[in-house]
Amino acid sequence: MSSPGSPVYILGVGMTKFIKPRGQVDYPEMGYEAGIKALADAGVNYDDVDTGIACYAYGDSTSGQRVFYQFGMTGIPVYNVNNNCSTGSTGLHMARKFLSHGAGNVALVVGFEKMFSGSLQTFFSDRTNPLDKSYIMMANTRGVDPKRPGAAQFFGNAGREYMEKFGATKEDFAEIARVNHEHSRRNPYSQFRDVYTLEQIMKSPEIWDPLTKLQCCPTSDGAAAAVLVSEKWLQGHPELRERAVLIAGQAMTTDSPDLYSKSAIDLIGFAMTKSAAEQALAEANVAPSAIKLVELHDCFSANEMITLDALSLCSPGKAHEMVRNGDITYGGRVVVNPSGGLISKGHPLGATGLAQCAELVWQLRGWAGERTVEGVGAALQHNLGLGGAAVVTVYKRADGEKSKRLSDKELEGVTGIAGRGYNPAVEARAVTQTEIEVGRSRRAASGWMDGGKVGETRL
């Protein structure tokens, strides 16, 4: 494992509301809204940004520049990142690497996705599918139904194996979905905010046993962004340290030979998640038992079950007992996905990792209102992409204190940031003119690329 270098902080976050992919909003608008919100939240003008990272899985080359030029045409490098469903966290990992080793002081990472309705698709039939070996392994061990969604088969099969090996039941997977849907009602950015009973979830249409429709994440349009700063930069701006959140530990891993062990659980990246978690927690000097707040990659309820195990949040093979004991929600051992997770919040691939980051930053700041998890010293984020990559990040408050819900009086300072007039953790609003004035370049704005009018961005 390479040296983590000097400390790096998340100083600002922002996101759009996640919505159904119906072509209502194009990616430049979504990316612009999230990026401006993050810059304003950080109190940073785009002129101070020296590195841009654009994260998206579906789109033409240099779509990132199309988004970033709206902030200003300052000539900085803009990197376009695609790493399947872990794309957003891969961008965060890149930015931290750059800043922690002196290759810049301020980075803006923007993740966005304009998706097609329905299940995920492949678009290049004239070349090798990067998951071809995984599909062959699945066909040889569990079979493949070409008429059913491939991702649901991968994760559904892993859920079946967890049932066979450890005694989990279909009700356990449905309970995970029930909890995530219940959490989503407190999150204004969630694509879906409906609450369901366990029976309703189990009786929704079957996608791939044991998964029903309400246990599967939807495709989504949306964007999220984060501003990262170096320790050196933050020392020069001490007035901003109060809102800074430290990246205390982080690791990105890819698959090991276990991928082809003939285990359906290994086939969805259990080993790389476990390795990333061990590395990130070790760097942060945090034991798994000390984690009380998690945003993890629940693309399907089965993956949440398996990820609880891979992150060592339970004893091996005991994740279903954790679910049964109420230990994945408020009042239990750890609150998992207070945002509603991918299952309810939605899953615009390039934005997901950055939306997870935003939620945990708001939580640690104490801004999240009624969904706040108090007493958190370290929060953990997990983002996974088949193919494959896993990114695990551990966050702590810069002052070393534990999270607590801010009072209405204390939140007055939050609404005053950038003159926005609201708390973005509990209200999903369109970008404001004052946020644009704070964030957008003052020396290199282009009238031709002008995205600076309030009416141009919308939820």
From TrEMBL:
Pfam families hit by this protein: Thiolase_C_1 (PF22691), Thiolase_N (PF00108)
Claim: Phosphoprotein is one of the keywords in the record: no
Domain Thiolase N-terminal: residue ranges: 8-231
Gene3D superfamilies to which the protein is assigned, alphabetical: 3.40.47.10
Class of this enzyme: transferase
Xref: InterPro entries: Thiolase-like, Thiolase_acyl_enz_int_AS, Thiolase_C_2, Thiolase_CS, Thiolase_N
Domain of life: Eukaryota
Keyword line: Lipid transport, Lipid-binding, Peroxisome, Potassium, Transferase, Transport
SUPFAM superfamilies tied to this protein: Thiolase-like
Cellular compartments per GO CC: peroxisome
One GO-annotated biological process of the protein: lipid transport
Annotated localization: Peroxisome
Protein's UniProt keywords contain Transport: yes
Residue ranges of domain Thiolase C-terminal in the record: 265-393
GO molecular function, one term: acyltransferase activity, transferring groups other than amino-acyl groups
E.C. numbers: 2.3.1.176
Protein name (record): propanoyl-CoA C-acyltransferase
Phylogenetic classification of the source organism: Eukaryota, Fungi, Dikarya, Ascomycota, Pezizomycotina
